[in-house]
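Here is an idea for our session: we take a single protein and study its fold together. To get us started, please write out a protein record for me. Start from the sequence, derive the backbone structure tokens from it, and show both lines together. Go ahead whenever you are ready, and we will take it from there:
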Amino acid sequence: MSKSNVYFTKDISADGLVGIYKALGRELKGKVAVKISTGEPGGHNFLQPTLISRLVSMLDGTIVECCTAYRGKRFDPDRHMKAIEQHGFTAIAPCDIMDATGEIEIPISRGKHLGGFDIVGEHIRNYNSMLMLSHFKGHAMGGFGGALKNMSIGVASRNGKAWIHSVGRTKDPDEMWGLIEDQDGFLESMAEACLGVVEFFGEQNMAYINVANRLSIDCDCDNNPHEPEMADIGIFASLDPVALDRCCYDAVMNSPDKGKASLVKRMLEKHAIHLVDTAKTLGLGTDEYTVIDIDK
């Protein structure tokens, strides 16, 4: 497989976000879902409405989410929508909790853990294309969160999240916490779930952007995340989610910023790159990439 293009800008702004999407050269058609993390109340590192509003409006997009598997303020649809509203997203675009009224199983053509299916919010059927608009940062369970995590755990319904976290052993969110010992199996299951989403929409109907700012070691699902210790990097985008996440991972690992130490430690401890490696093995993309700086 030839190298994939990963576009980059240091301009973390509404203009920068629109510019890097245009650089991708892909028009997402029909009804566009924009998958973000709207953030757990108490947290503050999630992508801000002021940053994303121009791009979402340009796409005539709907911001989509699913309920969490942990019993926080986004566990049920009503409280989740209140959190989305409190964080300012309903003011900029239509917002949809995709599993608010139920879930469906979508097929996965290959993989060894999830039994050939992913469990996602049933509203996914209302969309023709999807932009994975992800905040790249650390994660307590996955090591880092980027396009692949957003596409797997993020698109999964509450029960689907349990299915992935437990490596295909339970759909019960409460039961899953006793079944999270298989770290590599979890990462492999996330990659399989990504494949299901790509196969559902079609590769040509997806695009991926990672915003590498507020680089906490903790996810936006954390209600009290660590403050970032390294400086913002920029915005990365690609039509290849494997190349995109690999590029962001490498950008942190190779950064001269001494503040990266905690994030690097977390990514290594959780064997985070195994998600990228597995996604490559499943044919979701390549980890070979060329960075194209759109600022130059």
